[in-house]
Design brief:
Number of strands: 16
Distance between the termini: 38 Å
Strand content: 15-25%
Largest sheet: 7 strands, mixed
Shape: globular
Bound molecules: pyridoxal-5'-phosphate
Helix content: 25-40%
């Protein structure tokens, strides 16, 4: 019996799975016996430092041996240090952190704060965006209500703004809008980078109507776009950014980072989480940020990402979208067919909700030789 068959015995069958079962992983490789698969997917953008990075192993070991867990009821230096590092990494006035365990939990809390502080009951999101599977995060996820949402009501009224349609913004963001939530580069939608003018129009409308701007950096953040956050690239000033995925390199963790103004309005008991801010996760947050800096990984992301953009179109790839290591390769043939053909050549890439976009979310430690392998394989595939 293989692992897939074994899983099917006692796990709910809610996932489509890839036809691989790695038994080990190192660097950017997933290993299946002697087979070495280059991982351009990183477990949904989580494995930002790849697998078995010595700094991560050492920090994990050290923290596990000192204090494995204490909740927020006990102050800990390791938690304070992780918050310091995130506040320093984040742009502008974003300097107060609340730790969660996932992207959905981060967005849930960000939306809760916006409704509480504005006293309003409408939230606007962007068509094709994805924000997670909980009640509030799912409510602002495009298409969720038709596919899987299942709750009888959403916690607030939701408006969807058509993507890149600046003319629609003023009709939708009104005096009753608590917040706009958006991904600057829409990840699951295929690394679709929103038009900067559209984003500026939304930011202006938020300011003039007193709505909060929440930037979901769950997929784009933590250096993935070649800058600390996509917010740095788009030069917007959100009230809250939300994080998860790469933040702790593979240990479950999420966070929201809020401005000083938002922080001032928060009181004891407003937010909470048993596991959020646990010492193991916090040790990893500090380690991830430290390695990103000391190994020059954002520079690596920028330079290799430019190599990908420059070398395309190639084979079935028509054009490239996205930023940094959140890239969408627009394919003339079905993206899932191209993904399968690449996997047969020992290259793991992702797909997206766009049936013609293959998604790349590789570890930041990727090297030029890995890109060359990908380009070589793409060049071998049928174009149309
Ligand atoms: N926001 C974005 C942009 C995401 O891509 C995801 C997950 O794919 C989420 C939120 C939800 O994160 P999680 O699965 O950790 O709840």
């Amino acid at each position: 019996m293989n692992a897939r068959e074994h899983e099917a015995q006692h796990l709910l069958q809610v996932y489509g799975q890839l036809p691989i079962e790695p038994d080990s992983a190192d660097g950017v490789y997933l290993n299946e016996g002697k087979r070495r698969i280059i991982d351009f997917y990183g477990g949904h953008a989580v494995a930002c430092l790849g697998y078995g990075h010595p700094a991560m192993l050492e920090a994990l070991n050290e923290q596990a041996r000192t204090v494995l867990f204490q909740s927020n009821a006990v102050a800990m230096e390791v938690r304070a240090a992780a918050a310091d590092a995130l506040a320093e990494f984040a742009p502008g006035d974003l300097n107060h952190v609340f730790f969660t365990n996932s992207g959905a939990e981060s967005n849930e809390n960000a939306l809760r704060i916006a409704c509480k502080l504005t006293g309003r009951n409408r939230v606007a999101a962007i068509e094709h965006g994805f924000h997670g599977r909980t009640a509030a995060a799912g409510a602002v996820t495009w298409g969720a209500r038709d596919k899987w949402y299942a709750f009888p009501n959403t916690p607030f009224e939701v408006d969807f703004i058509p993507r890149d349609n600046s003319a629609a913004v003023d009709d939708i963001i009104g005096d009753d809008t608590a917040a706009v939530i958006l991904e600057l580069v829409q990840g699951l939608a295929g690394a679709y980078d929103l038009d900067p003018g559209f984003v500026r129009t939304i930011a202006r409308a938020c300011r003039s109507k007193g709505a909060m701007l929440i930037v979901d950096e769950v997929q784009t953040g933590m250096g993935r776009c070649g800058e600390p956050f996509a917010t740095n690239i788009y030069k917007v000033e959100p009230d809250i950014i939300t994080l998860a995925k790469s933040i702790a390199g593979g240990i479950p963790c999420g966070a929201i980072i809020v401005t000083g103004d938002v922080a001032k309005s928060m009181a004891s008991g407003d937010l909470g989480s048993t596991f959020g801010g646990g010492p193991l996760a916090c040790a990893m947050v500090s380690t991830v940020l430290d390695v990103i800096k000391t190994e020059g990984l954002m520079e690596n992301v920028r330079s290799l990402s430019a190599q990908i953009a420059q070398a395309c179109p190639i084979g079935p790839v028509d054009s490239v979208q996205g930023k940094g290591f959140l890239r969408g390769l627009r394919t003339r043939r079905s993206a899932s067919t191209v993904r399968n053909e690449l996997l047969e050549r020992d290259l793991l890439v992702g797909t997206s909700t766009d049936p013609h976009v293959v998604r790349l979310l590789p570890p930041y430690i990727l090297k030029t030789k890995h890109i060359q392998r990908l380009l070589g394989a793409l060049a071998e595939l049928p174009e149309d």
